[in-house]
Queue: 4 jobs
Job 1
Amino acid sequence: MNPFEMFKNIGKIQTQLKEMQDKIDRLTATGSACGDSVSITLNGKFEMTDIKINPDSLNPEDLDLLPALIKAAHADAVEKVRKMLQEQAQTLTEGTGLSGFPGFGN
């Protein structure tokens, strides 16, 4: 698409960006480790909104593993949020002509 054509659609693009931001604000993803022994929920801004540790699934003698489980659950949640954000960006750029520009859906 001609870059000048894109500017004709700037209002539409701004509306879509606002809609995307609203979706990001509502987005959540939960990552887990060791069969849900530890689960962490992040929002679309990668802020932790919840953490759950199932005490029944952890042996008190293995508590030194807890930091590694928390890190693994967090990494799982981060990957899920990144994937969701990438899908949102692709949806936004379809039909706008932005997909040919670096950082916009490619």
Job 2
Amino acid sequence: MTTVYLIRHAEAEGNLYRRAHGHYNSAITARGYRQIAALAKRFEQEHIDAVYSSDLVRTQTTALAIARVHGLPIRTTPELREVGVGVWEDRTWAWLARFDRERLVAFNVNIGAWEVEGGERMADVRDRMLRAVKTIAAAHPNETVAVFTHGMALRTLVGTLQGLSLAEIDKTPHAENTAVTKLVSDETGIRVLWRDDASHLPEELTTLRRQAWTKARDGVEPGVWFEPDAAAAGRFHVLCEDERVGTVAVAPGVDGVADLTELRLDASAQGRNLGIRLVGQAVSHARAQGCDTLRAVLPRENALGLHRMAEYGFRVAEETPERVTMALYSGYDGARRIASFDEAWAEVER
């Protein structure tokens, strides 16, 4: 009998910034690294023979929870990827709610009928996920394997293994980031012993439990979308529905570093946890310009601004008596990802 642990990736940029990331290669957030460390603690004493992951950075980074601690290589395959969302990739969910609402609702509650240009059909995702897990299980008879994958792909696979149709899967819950599902495989097939367990996460490290879309019948949540400023490259108007409520701007980058020059929300939009979504737009734009670091320079007396930037994941990079330079790294460098995991893991081990 083979045991397979299916594990959803930790909180990534799409989860935090509320953007549609299927095959888009998003990075793990600061909270995500803490989730990975908690997952590593859960599996610290568990015997694991092999680690598999989708080939996207967010799953490979999450797989460090077992690969790094147990000294195992990470074997990657694109068959474990999230559903590709085609022309939706890196759009904000609020933009989709405003301009493609019918298909967004189908994505949330009628996935079997959903399709967009350049995207995958969910039936095809189901088939490739089944094929991948069957192949992995067959390659490891009487062993224990950890498989790192993605939310929608995982939900579809687990529901299918439980005998559900795509329509029935629509009614099943979504797994928390780093949630674990346990399968067993033998000559009779693959069975789900239990699913979607995130008991290793304290409440303050959860992601989905905090998000409004999980409580809405149609899965649509309020939020903001962005409209390029025709008069200034790298500057975006922030819109809630059709009302402009702020601005975010990124200056052209040099040596992989882009400057966040403006981040503003009107009073009417404040207090709704929307500021982090402006950071997401800045990260997305900077990455498209070839920059993996976002820099912000604030006057030292701007205590609120410094506090907010720290909340958004920025770290102090340089200080003078007058100014504080803060930076947010959102690149894919493997050594830096390992260092971030090691830092979070050290905190758990203290």
Job 3
Amino acid sequence: MKKTLAALLICAMAASLTACSGGSGSPETTAAQGSQAPAASQDTQEAQAGQEEEAPGALHFQLAENQPDGNPITEGMYMFADLVKKYTDGTVIIDVYANAALCDEASSIDQVMAGTLDFSRVNTNSMSPVVDLFGAFGMPYLFSDTESKYKALDGEAGAYAFKELENYNMVGLDFYEAGSRNFYTTSKPITSVADLKGMKIRVQQTEVAISMVQALGAEATPMDYGEVFQGLQTGIVDGAENDFVSYYTSGHYEVAKNFTLDGHMAPPALVICSKKAWDQMSDSQKEGVMKASKEAAQWQRQAMQDYQEESRKECEAAGCTIIDVDVKEFQEAVNSVYDEYPQYKELVDLIRSVQ
């Protein structure tokens, strides 16, 4: 697995030279997308070769994925489809369309809601403009660590969020890992909240991200993702924020050598199914789909963690400094941001009750 992930990082790095950011409705990708996506991993190809035979009269569904082949999220979707076929004895077939071959993330949500698309893998940031409750998952310093994050998402908090999806003709299956965002800077390292005072930090164009950076004492500077490298290089901004994979594949590590492990945002991804498609399945088929999703999610979460670690090693080898901080200090500084979103309180409390 580690050799495969290292190879994928090299492919993603090359692809990032021609990559561009998505529209305003979709979040930045975990790994860069280019005109030519890396080939699917050998593990996935072998799994596909060993699939069960299709049963007569099988149900056929489509799943939209905006990441390219090789990304752990996409590989998780291929595994999900393979396991669905296995656990339903070939009576449910899911075809995965990677690299946004069907549509982008924002469009896929609308289509799943309308029942014109069967399944999609989306980020909770993409879901929040449609289902506001999912904006809670993008709140700053919400998750204390990965273990407690999935204890909440696989438990009462996740069930609470998925219940809301039913009001939009969607069924939520499982949460998937999409990385954790951290600050990185060109000159002055961030070792405490005080270091952020007066710094110009590039953020995504979301209200929560802007409010968070302002609460930390910095100047929030919204900027298209494709402009960030030049912004860092020329001093238009002093820093930015993203996960290790994007930090590496974008080349930002070349001009912003200080990476602070504060983990201010870790919005997960999830797989959604249209109610129309869900209602076509028998109880035993639904059970097989849920079993497949849970197994694929567990694999993908670890694969994404491995992918992040490989990226970190590459950045450290290139001379980047990784800085640990007292996250509690940062959490306390952004308490005012939570006051701006009282509608998220019940879900936030459920998440924090297990941390």
Job 4
Amino acid sequence: MEHIEWQLNRFREAPGRPAIIWRDREYTYGELEECYRDWLDRLRAAGVQAGHSVAVLSDFSPGAVSCLLALLKLRCVLVPLSPEARDQHREFFAIAELDHRVEIGEDDRGDVIRMRNRRGHPLLQQLRAADKAGLVLFSSGSTGQPKAVLHSLPELLNKFRKPRHCYRTLVFLLFDHIGGFNTLFYTLANLGCVVVAEDRGVASVCAVIEKHRVELLPISPSFLNLLLLSGAIDSYDLSSLALITYGTEVMPERTLKMANKAFPGVRFLQTYGLSELGILRSKSESDHSLRMKIGGEDYETRVVEERLFIRARSSMLGYLNAPSPFDDEGWFDTGDSVVQEGDYLRILGRESDIVNVGGQKVYPAEVEQVIAEMDGVIDVAVKGEAHLLLGQVVTATVQMADPIQAVRMRKRIAAHCKGRLQKFMVPVKVSVVAEGQVNHRFKKIRR
């Protein structure tokens, strides 16, 4: 049975149950199926056929979700795109070889627009020949040009067939992010409720949690830090939360410690995934621990010289604009440095983020953790800067609650780090800023 029919059969088990809360209105699973059937008719009338590459420009609205389901039924190649990446959309249209794009408006209706991009990429042809639906996701581009990841959807979605916990879940990660896509389909597969905030600001997220009794909050460590330091916890009733999951970047120990104190009784789970592989099943050692087990039925892991490699049945077919990253045995180099401690792993950070000071490795997250302990520090981002003799030196950009001269802050940091960090790890250059240190995906900016 193809995935969409299995999914629809599950919807029919509880047609009156809320599926999506969007703009404070509940949409039931019965209404979602009606909207899906309407989209099927509209897409067919617009000439959309199996194998066509179709972008959906939206966020998590009932219309957008129903459109994705209809495109899955038609065995199209889905290309979800969020408004936050609009400056890159034209480039993405060409790379994904779009046949159509669907622009969802404020009224949650959508226009289907015919595109005329060049076709012929071998991986897309392979997917069409197999008569399977596909998914294109674009990486954040934090290490260069965004890569276009192509998945075969039946393999990626197969893991959702097994029933798991049902939650009322706030979708925080973006519409075009593997984490956001995973949250959506996990929630629908288990007849949970997808809750959409008006925006991803701290106040909006807290207001939605309070009003709609959200149980599961999947967020980035950077956003969790903002939430804790904002004081919003004291202004809203967040007692409905049962589980907070975090991933996409390294979690500072200070932030996790503060979160456990601020949310007694809430479970914390570290997640791990990549656009190229999907989201792995994970198990944190405890709510307070940064050590975790990762894997699941479809995944194998191994650590080689403190670097994590993964092999997955649900791996992407490949990149549309870059060479294949898999070795001859199908292993994928995640680029993450890890420490293996028994059955558990602790993520140290991306290899590309590591600062090399005269041959000595510096993990930015380690330095950030120490600096974040200082009074008045809201956030900090550490990175490397080229140096003629040492290759690189450590620099820090610090967001402060109150203004302070950069020279004074550098001296304060040096004094605070003495005895806590080795000398080569202490920032030699410090910038003080008023704005946050996260991008539109709420990940730390280090470039």
